[in-house]
Prior knowledge:
Elements lengths: L1 H13 L1 H41 L4 H19 L8 H9 L3 H5 L4 H16 L7 H15 L8 H20 L2 H12 L8 H19 L14 H32 L2 H9 L1 H18 L9 H9 L8 H14 L7 H16 L7 H17 L2 H12 L5 H18 L4 H19 L2
Helix pairs in contact: 2-6, 2-7, 2-8, 2-10, 3-6, 3-13, 4-8, 4-20, 6-7, 7-8, 8-9, 8-10, 9-10, 9-18, 11-15, 11-16, 11-17, 11-19, 12-13, 13-15, 14-16, 14-17, 15-16, 16-17, 17-18, 17-19, 18-19
Amino acid sequence: MQNRFYRRSKYIWLSTTHWKRRLIFWGGAVCVGTIAVLFAVAAAYANAVFHDLIAVSPYLPLIVSPLGLALVVAITRKYFPGSQGSGIPQTIAALKISDAAARQSVLSLKIAAGKVFMLVLALLSGASAGREGPTVQVGASIMHALGKWGSFSRVDAERSLILAGGAAGVAAAFNTPLAGIVFAIEEMSRSFEERTSGAVLTAIIVAGMASLAMLGNYTYFGHTNDSLGFSQGWYYVLICGLTGGIMGGIFSLTLLNAGKMLPEKAGAFMKEKPIHFAALCGLVLALIGILSGSSTYGTGYTEAKHILEGTANIPQDYGILKMLATIVSYLSGIPGGIFAPSLAIGAGLGSNLTSLFSDAPQGAMATLGMVAYFSGAVQAPITAFVIVMEMTDNHEMTIPLMTTSVIAYAVSRIVCPTPLYKTMASSFLATANRKELDHP
């Protein structure tokens, strides 16, 4: 048996097919990391351009945002169908689609290109959206396309490529390789296939290393030294967990049931006139922006960093208004994610809770608010904890962050029993299955 194992191992390691597939994983990971970095730079530039615009007049978004969002939706629907929304539900659905043509409707290089360019245009229009979810779909699309060169005949092997690409996108987008690994396990795949997990993990690490090599080892939200003492820390953890879980659950419930919540005529208008509806969403987005002092536009990275470090005066109603702006942006039908806006919303809610307690450290409360709301919105508590811990570089808050994330997750499940991404993925999967039946 030992000789047979040795011969089999020797055959695998000397096989050109084996190394070809490994090179596709590694090369694809480098591509995903590189594109994620370029995407991040483009998104930051778009944010900066829009803020230069509102520096001229805070009322310009009343024209720019409706026209911009309508243009994005029109181009997306005509030239890049399948690129709307976050991108994570599409990627999760692709893991379960066996038909190649149906999978192509949610993962392709064309969709990846549309995702990048349309989100940048949406940010230029002031949309409250993130690039992390879209980077997941972009990464999965790149790896899926490269898989055609590697003779990946088994369905499980093709799925491992999609899983690796999506998780590598998270690792590179957040500059946090560990978060990519956790996200792959917790959110995108409930179990690893033993024979491909090593390749998937390696691809995620390589993508993270590519991001680190180009951007350096930095944290998006800066750093805070604030921590919590044991005597009152448990109380703050409980308050933040409950608040974040409730608000995150309401956020998810709204996105999943918006069509039912809207009045009948408004719901019909949303479905029958999507471009006009996007323009209306742009107008609402601009009004929210004016009420917030122009703080709710864009990804929310800058505002969250200011709240965390206490370096700027952010409006007290920022958390709620940012939440409304993100809901409106998502419902407009543009390509765009909720990761970064959710973290910003959580920071805003944490800041609100700080004002209720005179001895509560703002940095610590903002961090707890971030992990609580994010966990409540996406219902992935381990991913939420790891992302916030890595992105704020505050390991003294490890236990409070973990506990807050779990509490928020449990509370959110009561408010919104069906997880956001899983429910949306089921919708994409049902659509793909119908297409497969129509075109066998």
